[in-house]
Design a protein that fits this description.
By secondary structure, the chain is mainly alpha-helical. It has one domain (2-108): Orthogonal Bundle (10k-s Protein, Hypothetical Protein A, Chain A). The protein is built from five helices and no strands. It is globular, with a radius of gyration of 13 Å.
Length: 112
């Protein structure tokens, strides 16, 4: 549980740090990419990269999952989870897209 708190804190700090050093992409930039017909090019690759990276890092560190996505969930469903979360919390879109993706996945697929 402690590692989850630490990682979430680090992820949520990215936008603050990003103001001076810059982060790669904000929620404001990722959301339109995910809503276009050509969403696979940027959106899907970005979301899957974030999900895979966070899952591997947490599991390697603690041997436990940060979120629990069942095997039946596909990448398009994860894209829709991000879109729904982004529309639910538009005040977060100026932050790092990776933080928003992680928060969306955690909210939809928490480990019980």
């Amino acid at each position: 549980m402690k590692i989850k708190t630490i990682l979430l804190t680090i992820i949520l700090m990215i936008p603050t740090v990003g103001q001076s050093s810059g982060f790669f992409i904000s929620g404001n930039k990722l959301l339109p990419e995910c809503e276009t017909k050509d969403f696979e090019r940027i959106c899907m690759n970005y979301i899957m990269g974030v999900v895979d990276t966070v899952a591997v890092v947490i599991f390697a560190e603690k041997g436990e999952d940060f979120f629990c996505i069942n095997s039946g969930v596909n990448s398009d469903q994860l894209r829709r989870v991000f879109i729904n979360y982004a529309n639910k919390y538009p005040e977060e879109l100026h932050k790092s897209a990776s933080a928003i993706v992680v928060n969306a996945i955690i909210e939809k697929f928490p480990c019980k």
